[in-house]
Every structure is written in structure tokens, then in C-alpha cells.
Design brief:
The protein has 145 residues and is mainly alpha-helical. Helix content is 48%, strand content 3%. The protein is built from 7 helices and 2 strands, in the order αααβαααβα. Strands 1-2 form a two-stranded parallel ribbon.
């Protein structure tokens, strides 16, 4: 701390003022480091990306077995009324994400626009652009009419 003593002598400041300047400098540098990390915006690693998918995992059960057709641009899926199994058939949507969609629409409010799907944790711009032609949004009361 000899350098602090020399700085105090050159600037004619007291010890408390020197420590205050040192504290402010450290806080400033810490703020710069936090800002730098925020600007990098490194997305967190998804838990499912750590496990190699097996060949049987690549085909969703809804596509493997004959049954109702999966959602498409010709037959879009209404995300306000679809059950979790139907949402699970969408590309990029697994069981956990389909449950989050159902939880969001039941706890927050029904979706008003397709873009609101981004509010669900786990759906980003890329997933939304994939889903956009395959989903639609209508109010739950108007869907039953």
C-alpha cells in the first residue's frame, strides 16, 4: 500500500479520501466487467444438449404411430386450446416445453398473438420462426363457436 501513500502525498488527500477513491475505482472496474459480460450474451447450455440423442428419440411418437396428423401450414395448431401432447408434436417442442406453454396460458392469459410464444421460457426467435407457419392463435371462447 506504499503506492496509496505516495498518491495521497502527491494529491494532498487524507487516508480516508484515498480509500474512497480506491473504492470508487474498484467499483467502476467491476461495473465495466459486468457490462462486458452482459454484452457478450452467451446463452446458457440447455440440459438436453448435453445428452446425445438416440435414433429412437429423433422420431416423435406422434409421427411414428398412425393417428392424427401433425400440425402443418395447411392444418395449423391453436396454441390456446391444444393439449400438451399436440404441442409436443411441433418441431423443437418437447414434453417440458409443451407443459410450459400450457402453464403460461393458464396462469398468465391466453395468447393474443403468435409472437407472444417468445414469453415462454425456452422459446426464442429461432424456434418461433420455425413454429410460426404451424401454429395459430384464437381466443379460447371464439374457438368453441
Amino acid at each position: 500500500m506504499v503506492w496509496l501513500y505516495r498518491l495521497q502525498q502527491r494529491l494532498s488527500i487524507t487516508r480516508q479520501e484515498g480509500l474512497a477513491i480506491l473504492t470508487l475505482a474498484v467499483l467502476f472496474l467491476l461495473g465495466l466487467a459486468v457490462r462486458h459480460l452482459q454484452q457478450q450474451q452467451i446463452p446458457p447450455v440447455a440440459a438436453d444438449s448435453l445428452v446425445a440423442p438416440s435414433p429412437t428419440d429423433s422420431i416423435p411418437p406422434s409421427l411414428a404411430s398412425p393417428g392424427p396428423r401433425s400440425p402443418s401450414a395447411e392444418q395449423p395448431l391453436n396454441v390456446n386450446t391444444a393439449p400438451p401432447k399436440a404441442l409436443d408434436a411441433l418441431p423443437g417442442i418437447g414434453p417440458a416445453l409443451s407443459e410450459r406453454i400450457v402453464t403460461y396460458r393458464s396462469t398468465q392469459r391466453p395468447f393474443q398473438r403468435v409472437d407472444e410464444l417468445e414469453r415462454v421460457s425456452g422459446i426464442g426467435p429461432e424456434t418461433l420462426s420455425t413454429l410460426r407457419p404451424m401454429v395459430r392463435v384464437t381466443a379460447p371462447d371464439s374457438a368453441s363457436k
